[in-house]
Amino acid sequence: MARITASVYTSHVPAMGSAMDLDRTADPYWQPVFTGYGPSREWFKENTPDAVFLVYNDHATAFSLDLIPTFAIGTGSLYAPADEGWGPRPVPPVVGHPELAAHIAQSVIQDDFDLTIVNKMDVDHGLTVPLSLLCGQPPVEAFHWPCPVIPFAVNVVQYPAPSGRRCFMLGQAIRRAVESFDGDLNVQIWGTGGMSHQLQGPRAGLINRAWDNAFLDQLISDPDTLSRMPHVDYVREAGSEGIELVMWLIARGAMADVAGGAAPRVRQRFYHVPASNTAVGHLILEN
């Protein structure tokens, strides 16, 4: 049977992608950020899975205000890096896992969660920056990242966004889907986006260090209670873009302990401010 062996949580700040693309990770401003991800890159080399199920939000590249799916699963075989206005990132295309993705879609929809199935789309920094942070920067000519990736886009851009509770329960359904797959696969689930940040209005530049770290504490120890936090709390405490953190609850819901298993092992925890006017959070949990 397939199994989810670990969950990875990370911000996906676009400026971090630019710093990697322009080879500026050793600059004094950026060095503390990328040093924090150093142990995680070593961990990923030693624990490269057969597939990554990557939860992220699209930034008006694959979708727009004309079409806003709440949950969209990529079932294609290849995804090109998106042009977000200044050309695509100089990274390889993302190779999908159509067989596992189709199985997860079938299982989760039959488990009463409505998904939009996407056979063709480009993927933006929300997906490629986390890959670069954990995998490094493969040259474009390498053609692929270290393992297949299933993109899973969540609408946290245009209200109404899904509740944290809905996301947490969806993670549980994804775990059940993976475990029912007829194949021996090592799967990781990644939740990306966040942490506290606001990009517009009178509170632009908001960062709430204490709230972010309390969120990480509770994500580890009591995700069920955390999943019941209302949207207004995210917006008030973590800024308008802080709502992206509900995507982390999908990854946390997929961990074994929420179904009565042993508590996950914390392999890495990192937090840094600021990075391009946002807070950067990162966590690795192993089943």
Automatic annotation (TrEMBL):
Give me the segments passing through the membrane. none
Keyword line: Oxidoreductase
All copies of domain Extradiol ring-cleavage dioxygenase class III enzyme subunit B, residue ranges:
8-280
Question: Which GO terms label this protein's molecular function in UniProt?
Answer: protocatechuate 4,5-dioxygenase activity
Q: What is its EC number?
A: 1.13.11.8
Q: Which Pfam families match?
A: LigB (PF02900)
Q: Which Gene3D superfamilies match?
A: LigB-like
Superkingdom classification of source:
Bacteria
What NCBIfam families does its record include?
PRK13364.1 (NF009901), PRK13365.1 (NF009902), PRK13366.1 (NF009903)
- Name recorded for this polypeptide: Protocatechuate 4,5-dioxygenase beta chain
Which organism's genome codes for this protein?
A: Paracidovorax wautersii
